[in-house]
Design a protein that fits this description.
Serine Threonine Protein Phosphatase 5, Tetratricopeptide repeat, mainly alpha, single chain, globular
Length: 461
């Protein structure tokens, strides 16, 4: 498999996110009205009138059916199997349904079995599936095998960069991202470079995001919407909520009912105390008509549960949290590397929110396993949270220091560091971290901490 690489003209872009059909004309008009509030450089001004743009999912389904028919005529074609695997992967990204990832993996493995050499496309699909499972070691191994044959392969470089980013190896991630941009400064590649710079806390991140927006092209609506969501998160983390809201709404103007934008906008509205709007946004992510579960479902249930908690409806909050927990446990049931597309960190956070001794113990166990796989600042912060709630403050201090040393500018992480120092009796250092938290995000007040779901609401300095 490691030498299974081939040249194939169809290569999926790392940021390909498929468009979602328009919900209603009123929604479109609403988000169109928000565009004028954004700086000109943040607005989307590229034509959306190309054929297939507004129903990309249908286009991918046509592609899937096309290659299925080709394989019916020639079941052993390694090239057609690789193309089918790539189409399955695109559908997985569009829907968030793990079943499409499994189909992609099966098709890619069959392709490699039938065409074991010069089969680059199938190797890339397997690397992407491994990455989706958080099996970053395998994703890196596969991408490096591709790079041995084709050093400039953009898919392999992107997988390498994003996997290193998740593992907390930021300099290696930056090297891969810089190589991508130097070879081809596309919007997708610049967005990835901006993500790495954000993780490093580099001021250059904001200008790199702007450069990414300046490179957008007609037809690449998924990338255009995704870049704006990430830029919106950047502004959100710095307390610039109006800019963040405008960017999320601009993403939704580009792709109505885009799940990532809806989730982040709902989070923002919750923080602002606009619970009714937040509820309606979550309902758009998870409509009653939906039949298949997706990777977004647990986030919707957790978000709705937090809304109920904030409104004093504890009974309904517990019910929704239980639904989220059930979903996360199902996803995590088989464990990493055994077919799971689970979210151990998300389950740990949910358990820590429950704040019961047995749940805290389980959350700590989950994070001690997760940290061996993923070691970015957010994962380290969650481990520090679990250690703190377990009364192991010295260990929590060491972990949160590792997160801080990465350079990531996140008010919540600095505030966590302050709470840990306070618990250890280091009042002066606690106050320093609390002030740094406020410098990053001046709006990170008690309401922001209450709505963050990071267990910081009960700490005051």
């Amino acid at each position: 498999m490691t030498k299974a690489i081939y040249k194939h003209k169809f290569q999926p872009k790392w940021l390909l996110l498929l468009t979602i059909p328009i919900a209603t004309s009123l929604v479109v008009l609403y988000f169109n009205s928000q565009s004028s509030r954004l700086p000109k450089s943040y607005r989307y001004s590229v034509s959306r009138s190309l054929p297939g743009i507004n129903n990309r999912r249908a286009t991918v389904l046509q592609e899937i059916n096309f290659y299925r028919e080709k394989l019916r005529q020639n079941p052993e074609s390694g090239l057609n199997l690789a193309s089918l695997a790539q189409a399955y992967l695109q559908m997985a990204k569009a829907t968030g349904e793990s079943s499409w990832y499994l189909l992609a993996e099966q098709a890619a493995k069959r392709s490699l079995s039938n065409l074991p050499f010069n089969n680059q496309g199938a190797a890339i699909v397997l690397a992407r599936v491994a990455q989706a499972r958080h099996d970053f070691t395998e994703a890196i191994r596969l991408s490096q095998e591709v790079l041995k044959i084709q050093p400039s392969n953009q898919n392999a470089l992107a997988i390498l960069a994003t996997s290193k980013l998740a593992m907390g190896k930021l300099q290696q991630a930056k090297t891969a991202a810089d190589t991508l941009v130097n070879k081809n400064p596309t919007q997708a590649n610049l967005t990835l470079q901006a993500l790495v710079l954000t993780a490093q806390g580099q001021e250059a991140a904001i200008n790199t995001f702007k450069s990414a927006l300046s490179m957008e092209e007609a037809g690449e609506t998924g990338t255009s919407a995704y870049t704006r969501v990430l830029l919106g998160q950047f502004h959100y983390k710095h307390g610039e909520l109006e800019l963040a809201e405008g960017l999320y709404k601009e993403a939704l103007r580009i792709i109505p009912r885009y799940p990532l934008a809806l989730l982040h906008l709902a989070e923002l509205k919750t923080r602002q105390g606009d619970y009714k709007t937040a509820e309606s946004l979550y309902a758009q992510v998870l409509p009653n008509s939906q039949k298949s579960s997706t990777t977004y479902d647990h986030a919707v249930f957790r978000g709705k549960a937090r809304l109920k908690q904030l409104q004093g409806d504890r009974q309904q909050a517990v019910k929704l949290l239980t639904e989220a927990e059930t979903l996360l446990r199902q996803e995590n049931a088989t464990g990493h590397g055994n077919g799971s597309f689970g979210h151990q960190r998300e389950l740990a956070r949910l358990l820590l929110e429950k704040n019961r001794p047995q749940d805290t113990a389980e959350a700590l166990s989950l994070m001690q396993a997760e940290i061996k796989i993923r070691r970015d600042a957010q994962t380290l912060d969650t481990l520090a949270w679990a250690l703190s709630d377990s009364g192991r403050f010295k260990e929590a201090q060491q972990v949160i220091q590792e997160a801080l040393q990465m350079g990531t500018k996140d008010a919540a992480i600095f505030y966590r560091a302050a709470t840990i120092e306070k618990a250890l009796g280091n009042d002066r250092q606690a106050l320093t971290y609390q002030k740094l938290s406020q410098q990053i995000d001046p709006t990170f007040d008690k309401q922001a901490r209450r709505t963050s779901g990071l267990g910081l609401e009960n700490f005051e300095f």
